[in-house]
Automatic annotation (TrEMBL):
<keyword id="KW-0325">Glycoprotein</keyword>
<dbReference type="Pfam" id="PF00560">
    <property type="entry name" value="LRR_1"/>
</dbReference>
<keyword id="KW-0675">Receptor</keyword>
<dbReference type="InterPro" id="IPR051716">
    <property type="entry name" value="Plant_RL_S/T_kinase"/>
</dbReference>
<keyword id="KW-0472">Membrane</keyword>
<protein>
    <submittedName>
        <fullName>Uncharacterized protein</fullName>
    </submittedName>
</protein>
<dbReference type="InterPro" id="IPR001611">
    <property type="entry name" value="Leu-rich_rpt"/>
</dbReference>
<dbReference type="InterPro" id="IPR032675">
    <property type="entry name" value="LRR_dom_sf"/>
</dbReference>
<keyword id="KW-1003">Cell membrane</keyword>
<keyword id="KW-0677">Repeat</keyword>
<dbReference type="GO" id="GO:0005886">
    <property type="term" value="C:plasma membrane"/>
</dbReference>
<keyword id="KW-0433">Leucine-rich repeat</keyword>
<keyword id="KW-0732">Signal</keyword>
Length: 269
């Protein structure tokens, strides 16, 4: 249907064409390409860069392989890019830094290697950065450290490294961050306490040490067993909360722990 003057939107009923093998369209004005949860295979074609009006692109989960094409950096209007749970390899193309309107980047659960692009959050509008469970290495780029718009960060399951207090900035909009299973080190700084919207902070299986003071809050439920992975922790304050349940046996792994304060948590056994 290429080289025609067909107007209007593509009907939703096209998804019922379950036996369709080839669909040829010239889609230079396409805004949304949402192909998630299919059985698409092969490489992402470099011609994806010709869809210069795209604002949303989702290709996951599909059994795609190969690398993310450099030409994806031509999609300067792109706001959401979702390519999760595929078999993609290679590095994250530096041309992603051209996508200055992008608010959501989700490329986790692939086999990507190399470093995070230096200017990935240069424009300061990125809200979701999800690159979990790849094979990424290196330090956190400065553009991410200064990206105050971030509300959700998932870097878990990589081989990233650096000082936990120096690699990350102050994120006033941050709600969720997972840095687990990397090679971060150093002492937790007080700047994490300035993330007033933060509801989930995950840092297990790193080389982080220091004090965690969660006292005088409204924490409920049981003490997470994951605290047992903070083997360098020397002080842990949980007093004046509403915790319940048993003290997890995993806390016995904290051989460097000097202070554990659970006072006024009356329902802990």
């Amino acid at each position: 249907m290429a080289r025609n003057q067909i107007a209007g939107s593509i009907p939703q009923e096209i998804e019922s064409l379950s036996s369709l093998n080839v669909l040829s369209l010239k889609l230079s004005s396409l805004n949304i390409l949402w192909l998630h949860e299919n059985l698409l295979s092969g490489h992402i074609p470099s011609t994806i860069g010709n869809l210069t009006k795209l604002e949303m692109l989702a290709l996951s989960p599909n059994p795609l392989y190969g690398s993310i094409p450099m030409e994806i950096g031509n999609l300067v209007y792109l706001r959401r890019l979702v390519i999760r749970e595929t078999q993609l390899t290679g590095s994250i193309p530096p041309t992603l830094s051209n996508l200055t309107r992008m608010t959501l980047l989700s490329i986790g659960q692939n086999k990507l290697t190399g470093h995070l692009p230096e200017n990935l959050c240069f424009s300061g509008v990125l809200e979701w950065l999800v690159v979990d469970n790849n094979k990424l290495t290196g330090n956190i780029p400065k553009s991410i450290k200064t990206c105050s718009s971030l509300s959700r960060i998932r870097l878990d399951g990589n081989q990233l490294f650096g000082n936990i207090s120096e690699e990350f900035g102050m994120y006033p909009n941050l709600v969720y961050i997972d840095l687990s299973r990397n090679n971060f080190y150093g002492e937790l700084s007080q700047q994490w306490g300035k993330c007033h919207k933060l509801t989930s902070l995950r840092m297990s299986i790193n080389n982080i040490y220091g004090e965690i003071d969660l006292s005088s809050n409204h924490l409920v439920g049981e003490i997470p067993v994951e605290f047992g992975t903070f083997v360098s922790l020397f002080e842990h304050n949980l007093y004046d909360n509403q915790l319940s349940g048993h003290i997890p046996q995993e806390l016995g792994h904290l051989t460097n722990l000097e202070i554990l304060n659970l006072a006024t948590s009356q329902q802990i056994i």
